[in-house]
Write a structure and sequence with these properties.
This protein is mostly helical and about 450 residues long. Among the domains are: about 110 residues, Tetratricopeptide repeat domain (Serine Threonine Protein Phosphatase 5, Tetratricopeptide repeat, Alpha Horseshoe); about 80 residues, no CATH class. It is built from 24 helices and two strands. Strands 1-2 form a two-stranded antiparallel ribbon. β1 and β2 form a beta hairpin. α2 runs antiparallel to α3, α8 runs antiparallel to α9 and α17 crosses α20.
C-alpha cells in the first residue's frame, strides 16, 4: 500500500520518495472512493510539499484533498483546511485573510475535541513562525504540545516542537531551547522527522558558534550542511547566506558576496525568501562599488509594504536593509523604517544569527533623533545578547550605542561612549572581526 510505504520512507528520512508515495496514495484513494485514506494521505502530501519549499503546490494538494474527503474524520479535514489557509498565505506572502480561513477550519472539527484544538494550535504555530510572530508561535506551540505527548501522536508532536523551537531561536528564548534540545533531537532522530531535526540543527549551529564567538566555525558548519542536508530541498542554501556573512565579518567582502549570490540563485520563492538577499545586501554595503545600489533596486520587492506580508524572510531582509542604510549613511531612509522594526520586536522577532533586531531599531531611532527610545532599544539589545550568550552581536550593539551617545552629547555621554567603544574593540579583536575593527579605527 502506497500510504504505508510513504510512512516507512518518511521514517527513514527519505522525504522526496515519501512525498511521491503520499501523492500516489492520495490519487489511489480518490480513485477508490476511500475518503478517509485520501484525507490522511493528502494531509501528509500537502504538508511535506510545503516543507520542501513549494507552498503553492502544497495549497493545491490540500484543496484537492479537501474536495475529495467528504465524510472523513472532521479533525483531519479541519487540519487540511488549515493547510489550505497556511500554504496559501505563505505562497502569496500575504496572511490578511488568514483569521477568517482559520475560523472556518475551527468550525469543521468538533468543538469539544482536544486533538482538534491542538491541531489548530499546531497550524497557528507553523503559520505564525512563518510570518515572524515568534511570541505567538511559541505560545501556540506550548498549548499544542501536551495534547500530542502520547507515542501515537509522535510526528505531530515533533512538527509543532520543531516550529516552536525555530521561533524560540528568533525570539531569543535560547535558555528554553537549551533545556529541551537534546531530548527533542533524540526523539526526532529516532522518528526520522527531518523537519524537526533541521530546526534543531539550525539552532545548534547558530547558538554554539555565537556563544563561542567563532565566525570561522560558523562558516565551516554552514557550508557542511550542503552535504549533511542533501535530499531536503533548498534549506541548506539558507545557511550559505549565514556563511557569507561570516566571511564578511572576517574581512572577505567579495567572498561573502559570491557565497550569498550563489545561494540566492539556488533558493525558491517562499516564506524564507529575503533572508539570503539580506545577507548579500549586507556584504554589498561594505563594498565601495555600485553593488549595494544595484542589489537595493533588485531586491526592492522584499521590503514588505504591509505587516500582513511580513514573512520571516522579509522580516530578516528589512532588518538587514535598515542596517545597510546605517552603513551607507542614509539617515532619512533608516529613520523611516523605525515603526516596522519596532513592530517586529513587539512580535517577538528579536535576533538572527548575526544581528539583534532591537539594536537596529535603536539605529533607526537614533537616525530620527529620538534619543530616549534609541537608548532603550540598545540597552535591551545588549541585555538580551549578554543573557543568551550571543557574542557575535554584542560589539556591534555597543558600538551603535556609543555612536548614539556621542551624537546626543549630554553630560557623561562621552565617557560612557568611550567605555562602550573600548569593549567593542576588544570583542572585535577576540572574534577576528577585522571588518568592523578597521571601521572603528577610521
Amino acid at each position: 500500500m502506497a500510504y504505508t510505504r510513504a510512512n516507512a520512507l518518511l521514517g527513514n528520512a527519505r522525504w522526496t520518495d515519501a512525498l511521491q508515495a503520499y501523492n500516489a496514495a492520495l490519487e489511489a484513494a480518490i480513485d477508490a472512493g476511500d475518503t478517509e485514506l485520501a484525507a490522511r494521505a493528502g494531509l501528509n502530501a500537502s504538508w511535506y510539499t510545503g516543507w520542501m519549499g513549494d507552498f503553492a503546490s502544497g495549497e493545491r494538494t490540500a484543496r484537492r484533498t479537501f474536495e475529495n474527503s467528504n465524510g472523513a474524520d472532521p479533525v483531519t479535514r479541519a487540519r487540511i483546511m488549515a493547510q489550505i489557509a497556511g500554504h496559501g498565505a505563505i505562497a502569496r506572502l500575504d496572511d490578511s485573510g488568514l483569521d477568517r480561513q482559520m475560523a472556518e477550519a475551527v468550525a469543521i472539527g468538533p468543538a469539544d475535541n482536544a486533538t482538534h484544538g491542538a491541531n489548530m494550535d499546531l497550524a497557528r504555530c507553523w503559520i505564525d513562525a512563518q510570518f515572524a510572530r515568534c511570541d505567538a508561535a511559541i505560545a501556540a506551540g506550548s498549548r499544542a504540545l501536551p495534547i500530542f505527548a502520547s507515542p501515537r501522536s509522535r510526528q505531530a508532536y515533533l512538527e509543532v516542537a520543531g516550529h516552536r523551537h525555530n521561533a524560540m531561536l528568533y525570539a531569543g528564548a535560547w535558555e528554553i531551547r537549551d533545556a529541551e534540545q537534546e531530548e527533542l533531537f533524540a526523539m526526532a532522530s529516532e522518528s526520522g522527522n527531518v523537519g524537526a531535526i533541521l530546526n534543531i540543527d539550525v539552532g545548534r549551529i547558530v547558538t554554539e558558534c555565537a556563544r563561542a564567538g567563532d565566525w570561522a566555525a560558523l562558516e565551516s558548519r554552514c557550508r557542511a550542511t550542503l552535504d549533511t542536508w542533501k535530499g531536503v530541498g533548498p534549506w541548506a542554501q539558507l545557511m550559505q547566506g549565514v556563511a557569507g556573512v561570516a566571511q564578511l565579518q572576517r574581512g572577505d567582502i567579495g567572498g561573502g558576496r559570491a557565497t550569498c549570490e550563489a545561494a540566492r540563485k539556488a533558493f525558491p520563492r517562499n516564506a524564507w525568501a529575503g533572508f539570503i538577499e539580506g545577507a548579500e545586501l549586507l556584504c554589498a554595503a561594505y563594498d565601495d562599488g555600485p553593488a549595494w545600489e544595484d542589489r537595493l533596486a533588485e531586491f526592492a520587492s522584499f521590503a514588505a509594504p504591509t505587516l500582513s506580508t511580513m514573512t520571516i524572510g522579509r522580516a530578516l531582509y528589512v532588518t538587514v536593509l535598515a542596517r545597510t542604510y546605517h552603513v551607507r549613511g542614509r539617515r532619512a531612509e533608516l529613520a523611516g523604517w523605525y515603526p516596522v522594526l519596532s513592530e517586529l520586536v513587539g512580535r517577538g522577532f528579536r535576533c538572527i544569527a548575526f544581528e539583534m533586531v532591537e539594536s537596529v531599531a535603536g539605529l533607526a531611532a537614533t537616525a530620527a533623533g529620538n534619543w530616549a527610545v534609541a537608548e532603550h532599544h540598545f540597552e535591551r539589545a545588549i541585555a538580551l545578547a549578554e543573557r543568551i550568550g550571543q557574542r557575535f552581536v554584542l560589539p556591534v550593539a555597543r558600538q551603535a550605542y556609543a555612536e548614539m551617545l556621542l551624537a546626543r552629547s549630554t553630560a557623561g555621554d562621552a565617557d560612557r561612549a568611550s567605555v562602550l567603544l573600548g569593549r567593542a574593540m576588544d570583542e572585535y579583536r577576540s572574534m577576528g572581526m577585522t571588518l568592523m575593527l578597521d571601521r572603528v579605527r577610521r
